[in-house]
Amino acid sequence: MTCQEAVDLMGEALEGQLQPALRPGFEGHMAECAPCATYLEHLHVTRNALLHLPLEGGTSPRRQELIEKFKREFGRG
Q: Measuring CA to CA, which residue among 48, 14, 10 is closest to residue 29?
């Protein structure tokens, strides 16, 4: 698996929706490619931070914008 292929699958992997047939190649690539593994970890941290932002009311004005951008960039929107 190439880095580009791995990056394209990271959104699905973060959501736990990676196709079983792709999982061995993805996991193998993450084990062998430190830059991709680091990038995936950064995405994981970012996703968790976005999910823990306050909901309606005290929300940062940028919250929805950031969530929509994340979804567009990682195939969830």
A: 10
- Give the amino acid at 61: P
For residue 30, the surrounding DSSP H or E stretch is helix 23-32
Q: How many CB atoms lie under 10 A from the CB of residue 29?
A: 19
| pLDDT per position as a tens digit, 9-58 | 999 999 899 999 999 999 999 999 999 999 999 999 888 887 777 666 55
DSSP string, 49-76: HHHTS--SSS--TTHHHHHHHHHHHTT-
Distances (CA, A) of 59 to 48, 65, 75: 16, 11, 24
What does the alpha-carbon distance between residue 30 and residue 44 come to, in Å, rounded to a whole number?
14
Q: Are 6 and 29 in contact (CB under 8 A)?
A: yes
What is the Cα–Cα distance from 50 to 15, expressed in whole angstroms?
A: 14
